[in-house]
Design goal:
This protein is an all-alpha fold and 336 residues long. Helix content is 70%, strand content 1%. The protein has a two-stranded antiparallel sheet. Helix 2 crosses helix 7. The radius of gyration is 21 Å and the shape is globular. About 10% of the residues have low confidence.
Length: 336
C-alpha cells in the first residue's frame, strides 16, 4: 500500500504544473489585451503570492542549518532565491545518501522544490499567451499530443536507459526543465477551454446540443481511469503496462496528461458531479490550507517531536500541529 500510495501521489505532480499553466494563462486570455499586466508586474504579483509563507518556512527551519558547513550555507542561499531545484534535491537519491559525489543542497525545506521549478515556467505566460491564443484547433491538438505523449515517452526511454543517461533518475523527477512541457500544456488547455466554452454558449443560444458528455462528465471519467492505474499497479507489474518502471515514470513525466487535462477541463466547466463535491465548503477550506500544509510540514514534524517524548506520540499529534501551523500560515502570511 505504501508503494501504491507513493505512485498515486507522484502522478499528481505533473497535474499541479499543468493546473498552474492553465490558471495563469486563463487569467491573461480572459482579459482584453490592454488589461494584461506587464511582465515584471505579473511576475512580482505571482511570486509575492507565495514567497512570504515560503520565507517563513525557511526561518522556521534555520535551526537545521550548520552555518559552519559550506554545503549548508550554499543550500540556504540557493533556497532563499528559489534556485534549489536547479542544483539541489535532484542530485541525490533519497535522504542524505548522495550519488557518486553529487552534493545534496536541498534540505532546508525539501517540499519547496516545486516553487523553484515553477517560477521559470511562469515567465512563459506573459511571453507566449498571445501566440498560443491564436493557434489553430489542429495546432492545439498536436501540441497537447506532443506534451502529453511524445515528451513523456522520450523521457521514460531516457530514464530507463542507464547507458544513455549519466545522472541520477531524480534529475528528471525534480529539475525545472522537465516540468515546462506540462506547464505549457496547461496554457494550451486554457485556450481549448475558452473555445469549448464559446462553442457551448453558441449552441445553447441556438437551443442545440448541450455540453459534450466527455466534458460534462470528464472529471468522473478521468478519476476512474487514474484509479484503475493506481489500483492495478504493484511492485510486480501493472495491468496496463508490461513493467512497473514504465508506468511509474509515465506518471512522473506527465504520461497521464490526457486524463489530467480532461479533469481540469471538466472541473472548469463545472457540470461534473465531482465539481459539485469539490465546491463543498469543507473541501474548499482544505484547498485553501493545502499550500501552507505543504510548506510547513517539515517544521510541524520538528515541532511535534519537541512537544512529545516519543516518535509514536509525535505522529499522533502531528495532524493537529500541522493544521494549527497551516491556519496561522494561511491567514497571517499567505492570505494578506
Amino acid at each position: 500500500f505504501d508503494y501504491e500510495f507513493s505512485f498515486w501521489g507522484e502522478s499528481w505532480v505533473p497535474f499541479f504544473f499543468m493546473l498552474s499553466g492553465f490558471v495563469n494563462a486563463f487569467s491573461f486570455i480572459s482579459k482584453p489585451p490592454t488589461a494584461a499586466p506587464s511582465i515584471p508586474s505579473y511576475l512580482f504579483k505571482r511570486i509575492m503570492g507565495f514567497y512570504p509563507l515560503f520565507f517563513l518556512s525557511i526561518l522556521l527551519r534555520l535551526e537545521a542549518v550548520d552555518f559552519f558547513c559550506p554545503i549548508h550555507r550554499t543550500s540556504l542561499v540557493f533556497t532563499v532565491f528559489l534556485l534549489h531545484a536547479f542544483w539541489g534535491q535532484y542530485y541525490c537519491t533519497w535522504g542524505d545518501k548522495c550519488l557518486e559525489g553529487w552534493v545534496c543542497l536541498d534540505f532546508v525545506n525539501v517540499p519547496s522544490w516545486f516553487l523553484s521549478s515553477l517560477w521559470p515556467s511562469l515567465i512563459l505566460v506573459p511571453v507566449l499567451h498571445q501566440r498560443i491564443s491564436k493557434m489553430r484547433d489542429i495546432s492545439v491538438v498536436v501540441s497537447l499530443f506532443v506534451c502529453w505523449v511524445v515528451v513523456p515517452g522520450v523521457l521514460v526511454t531516457l530514464v530507463l536507459d542507464p547507458d544513455y543517461w549519466g545522472v541520477p533518475d531524480s534529475f528528471i523527477k525534480f529539475h525545472p526543465i522537465f516540468k515546462v512541457h506540462m506547464f505549457l500544456s496547461g496554457m494550451i488547455l486554457a485556450v481549448a477551454f475558452v473555445r469549448v466554452s464559446e462553442a457551448y454558449q453558441i449552441s445553447r443560444n441556438l437551443e442545440s446540443s448541450p455540453t459534450p458528455l466527455v466534458v460534462q462528465y470528464g472529471a468522473t471519467f478521468s478519476l476512474i481511469g487514474l484509479l484503475i492505474v493506481f489500483l492495478g499497479t504493484d511492485p510486480h507489474g501493472s495491468m496496463l503496462t508490461d513493467k512497473l518502471p514504465e508506468s511509474r515514470w509515465l506518471a512522473i513525466t506527465g504520461g497521464f496528461g490526457v486524463m489530467h487535462g480532461l479533469l481540469i477541463l471538466s472541473l472548469s466547466v463545472g457540470q461534473d458531479p465531482v465539481a459539485r463535491i469539490f465546491s463543498n465548503p469543507i473541501l474548499v477550506m482544505c484547498g485553501n490550507l493545502a499550500f501552507p500544509i505543504y510548506m510547513l510540514q517539515d517544521y510541524s514534524w520538528t515541532l511535534a517531536n519537541k512537544l512529545m517524548d516519543t516518535t509514536h506520540n509525535a505522529r499522533m499529534v502531528l495532524p493537529i500541529v500541522l493544521v494549527v501551523c497551516s491556519l496561522i500560515g494561511h491567514y497571517w502570511f499567505e492570505k494578506p
